[in-house]
């Protein structure tokens, strides 16, 4: 493929997908990593795309923005309920759980209000869901508050986590791509990274819209996750790149 055709193909892909990954383009076009990086630099210089860490972003899509907790509440609601039921079925009496921030995890927390467990969270919405439970020993981690997601983050949160251990940690993300699990905020990612490292079992809750997507900050690798919990709308094709990395469960497993 000549250079002109290669540049047109890169533009076509980035404008179609919004964001592209260098490794994917290298594999598709069968050229070197350095060639693609030079192509991206040239296209950026011409004002045709925007380079980001690990890839490029379409000018047409604008700079990615982080959706607020409120905005996410109305998205993939059926799928979140499926995943929440599946996750709740894996919780046993007497366990100590870490539950990270996110609307899927909030749906999960609503299934736990009558369980005899201990829950540690850095999410204010999850604390609010569980605070009136008579059976849950609930701990809210403090730190710097992020109003957009309702999460506490930063050095105080991280230091608190380093002194704790969990039976299970349940986290979510904005996407998985190759072996990487990513989110928008580095600070939120670091909290989840520490919590996962302190857990005996690690669970990632992800609906079908998050497969083969990535965001700004990679905070963990999929091959270090014990179980990926997803919904019944996630297709075998979506799962295929990840089935060798972790055990994938959907609510089909409850039937």
TrEMBL record:
Keyword Repressor tagged: yes
Gene3D superfamilies attached to this UniProt entry: 3.40.50.1360, Winged helix-like DNA-binding domain superfamily/Winged helix DNA-binding domain (1.10.10.10)
Keywords of the record: DNA-binding, Repressor, Transcription, Transcription regulation, Transferase
Function: Repressor of the lactose catabolism operon. Galactose-6-phosphate is the inducer.
Organism: Streptococcus pluranimalium
PROSITE patterns linked: HTH_DEOR_1, HTH_DEOR_2
One Pfam family, short name: DeoRC
SUPFAM superfamilies, alphabetized: NagB/RpiA/CoA transferase-like, Winged helix' DNA-binding domain
One function term, GO molecular function aspect: DNA binding
Name of this protein: Lactose phosphotransferase system repressor
Domain named HTH deoR-type: residues: 3-58
């Amino acid at each position: 493929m000549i250079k002109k055709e290669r540049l047109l193909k890169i533009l076509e892909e980035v404008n179609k997908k919004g964001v592209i990954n260098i490794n994917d383009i290298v594999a598709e076009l069968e050229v070197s990593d350095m060639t693609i990086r030079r192509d991206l630099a040239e296209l950026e210089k011409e004002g045709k795309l925007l380079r980001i860490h690990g890839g490029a972003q379409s000018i047409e899509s604008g700079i990615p923005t982080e959706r607020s907790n409120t905005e996410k509440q109305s998205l993939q609601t059926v799928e979140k309920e499926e995943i929440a039921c599946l996750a709740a079925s894996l919780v046993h009496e007497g366990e100590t759980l870490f539950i990270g921030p996110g609307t899927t995890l909030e749906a999960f927390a609503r299934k736990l209000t009558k369980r005899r467990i201990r829950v540690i969270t850095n999410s204010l919405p999850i604390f609010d869901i569980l605070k009136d439970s008579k059976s849950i020993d609930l701990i809210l981690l403090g730190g710097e508050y992020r109003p957009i997601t309702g999460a506490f983050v930063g050095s105080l949160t991280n230091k608190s986590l380093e002194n704790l251990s969990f039976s299970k940690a349940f986290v979510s993300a904005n996407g998985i791509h190759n072996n990487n699990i990513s989110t928008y905020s580095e600070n939120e990612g670091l909290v989840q990274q520490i919590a996962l490292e302190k857990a005996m079992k690690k669970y990632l809750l992800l609906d079908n819209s998050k497969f083969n997507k990535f965001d700004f900050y990679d905070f963990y690798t999929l091959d270090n996750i014990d179980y990926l919990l997803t919904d019944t709308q996630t297709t075998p094709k979506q799962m295929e790149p990840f089935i060798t990395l972790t055990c994938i469960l959907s609510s089909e497993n409850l039937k």
